[in-house]
Sequence to fold (271 residues):
Amino acid sequence: MHLVYFDESGNSGAGLADTAQPVFVLCALLVPEAQWMALERDLQSVVEAAFQSPRPDDFEIHANELANPRGFFRAFPIAHRLKFRDSLFEVARQHSLRVIYRAIEKKRFQKWVASSLGAGVSLNPHIAAFPLVARVVNDHLRSLPGQPLGIIISDENQEVVRDIEKSIRLLRGIEGRLQLSQIVEKGFFIESHKSLPLQLCDLCAYAARKAEEHRLGFALKPLDATWASMVEPLVFRGDEQFQDVIAWMIEQQKKERPGAFASGSKRSNPL
Fold:
C-alpha cells in the first residue's frame, strides 16, 4: 500500500486572472506504507531541531509562510527558514519518495474553457489536473514490484471535494486504460495541520509551481528562484494519457452542463 498525498499551489479557484499566481500546480507525494512511520519521525525531528518545543498549538509548515513569512515564522531569519526547508527535502530524498504533478497555466486554461465548454462557464483547474495526475500515480503503482495499491489523502479543499470524490469513483469504475485500478476506497480529505507528510507535499507543490513559472518565462523573486530546483530529484514523469483524459473530462462536463457546451474546438490543448 502507498499513501498518496495530494496538495496544490497557486489556487485561486475558478478565478483564473490572478497575475500574482499565473500557474496552478496539483502535486501528489507517494509514501510507501512501510516508510510512513519512519518518514513522520524524521520530519518531526527536523521540526524539533529547527523550532524547539514548545511551539504554538497551530504550528504548521506552509511553503508560503517560509518564503513570505508571517506569524510564527517571521521571528526567524531567511537563512534559518531555508535551512529548515532544505532539511525537509533532504528527508524526502533519503526516503526515495516520488512526486507527480501537473502544472496548468491559468490564462491558457481560461481560454480553453471558454472555447470548449462555453462562454461564461467556469472550471477550477484542480478538476482538470486531478485525473491527469491520478493517471500517472496509478501507472506508477502498477509498475512497482507487487503492484501495490494506493489510497488518496488530500488537503481539505471544500471547493473541489465533491468533484474529486466523483472523479475517483467514476475512474475506478470505468474499463480500459483510464481506470484507476490501483486506487482503493474513496478519497480522504484531512486538515493539513494534522499530517506532516501532507505539509511536505505542500512544499513540493510550491517548489514545482516555481519551477514551472520559471520554465514558462515568468519572473521570479530571488528567494522563489531558490525553490525551483528543490523538487526535481523527486519527480516521476509518466504518461498522463493526456488526450484520453481530456476527452473523458469534456464528456463529464457535457453531462453536468447540458446546453452550455460550446461548439468550438474540442481538440485544442488546454494545459
Remarks:
- Residues 100 and 237 are 7 Å apart (CA to CA).
- Residues 262-267 have pLDDT under 50 and may be disordered.
- The chain has one domain: 2-256.
